[in-house]
Amino acid sequence: MGNTLEQVDTHEPGFALHVEDLTVTYGATPVLWDIDMDIPPGVMAAVIGPNGAGKSTLLKAVLGLLKPVAGHIRFLGRPLSEMRQAIAYSPQRQSVDWDFPTTAGDVVEMGLYGELGWFKRPNREHRARALAALQEVGMEAFAERQISELSGGQQQRVFIARALVQNTPIIILDEPTAGVDVTTENIILELMKRLRDRGKTLIVVHHDLTNVQAHFDWLVMLNVQVVAQGPLNEIFTEENLRATYGRRLSP
Ligand SMILES: Nc1ncnc2c1ncn2[C@@H]1O[C@H](COP(=O)(O)OP(=O)(O)OP(=O)(O)O)[C@@H](O)[C@H]1O
């Protein structure tokens, strides 16, 4: 059942994501400069940095949604072209038209289109998988609800369910807890931890410095360049935070 890439062993030697010499510009302005980054498999990695640091751009570039000026990217040792179905991606909630007339259940099923192909209709098994994913984020009661009628936190959870239903070894989420209340944020963070504990690799743009330490185990500190990266308990230091955020961080 499910797609064949579920069988990719996320604990094989090598990195879940390996990035070398990545440079991205918008017009003439460099937004990411000479990024080298390694994220090991099976971690819950946070990408942090100030507004405009290039966090979303980094995710889009590694996913091939933006064309870098330079760079070399590998997922589990292989090029993106071979690994697309091993990666689920959830963009920032604001980047989506939530007025589009569709239900929460349909949005989650859309996550299966990579597996199904756009022209094959989802069947009962796919529907059941979508419902199971909604259940995992505590949203099964909302399967038939129009997405425009969901709160921001509920929309985030539907988006996470859409990533979950794909059952991929790598999950990339852009600010999955932006604009949600503390209770919902904790639900989402605990869910991400459960996925990590099942061996998945999570790469997450996260904005809340107050809880990054409690939930993540790997950190990439970004501000156009990588300021620091590694196991969170080694690099989440005042010095690195200052180097990343500058004077915006109060003492
Ligand atoms: N499509 C675009 N065209 C031109 N410039 C862009 C575009 N998208 C982003 N930028 C610029 O690139 C820089 C990095 O943006 P990006 O969205 O990657 O930052 P971020 O770290 O994700 O920020 P935030 O925390 O505010 O979401 C910013 O200066 C932004 O203004």
Describe it for me?
By secondary structure, the chain is α/β, with parallel strands linked by helices. It has a single domain (4-248), classed as P-loop containing nucleotide triphosphate hydrolases (Rossmann fold, 3-Layer(aba) Sandwich), CATH 3.40.50. The chain has helices spanning 55-62, 80-83, 104-110, 113-116, 124-136, 152-164, 182-197, 212-215, 232-235, 238-245; strands spanning 17-26, 29-39, 44-48, 70-75, 87-90, 170-174, 201-205, 218-223, 225-231. A six-stranded mixed beta sheet has the order 5-6-7-3-8-9, sandwiched between helices. Helix 3 (104-110) crosses helix 5 and helix 3 (104-110) runs parallel beside helix 6 (152-164). The protein is globular, with a radius of gyration of 18 Å. The N and C termini lie far apart (52 Å). Bound molecules: adenosine-5'-triphosphate. The site of adenosine-5'-triphosphate (ATP) has 10 residues, from helix 1. Adenosine-5'-triphosphate (ATP) binds next to helix 1.
Shape: globular
Query: Poorly predicted ranges (pLDDT <50, ≥5 residues)?
Result: 1-12
- Cα-to-Cα separation, first versus last residue: 52 Å
Instruction: Count the domains.
Output: 1
What is the top-level CATH class?
A: Alpha Beta
CATH topology: Rossmann fold
Instruction: Report the structural category.
Output: alpha/beta
Residue share in β-strands:
15-25%
Name the strands of the widest sheet in spatial order.
Answer: 5-6-7-3-8-9
> What's the SSE pattern?
EEEHEHEHHHHEHEHEEHH
The percent range for helix content is 25-40%
CATH evolutionary superfamily: P-loop containing nucleotide triphosphate hydrolases
Provide mean pLDDT, rounded: 89
**Cofactors and ligands present?**
adenosine-5'-triphosphate
Number of helices: 10
Largest sheet: 6 strands, mixed
The CATH architecture is 3-Layer(aba) Sandwich
Domain ABC transporter: 17-249
Pfam families: ABC_tran
InterPro entries: AAA+_ATPase (IPR003593), ABC_transporter-like_ATP-bd (IPR003439), ABC_transporter-like_CS (IPR017871), Metal_Ion_Import_ABC (IPR050153), P-loop_NTPase (IPR027417)
Family: Belongs to the ABC transporter superfamily.
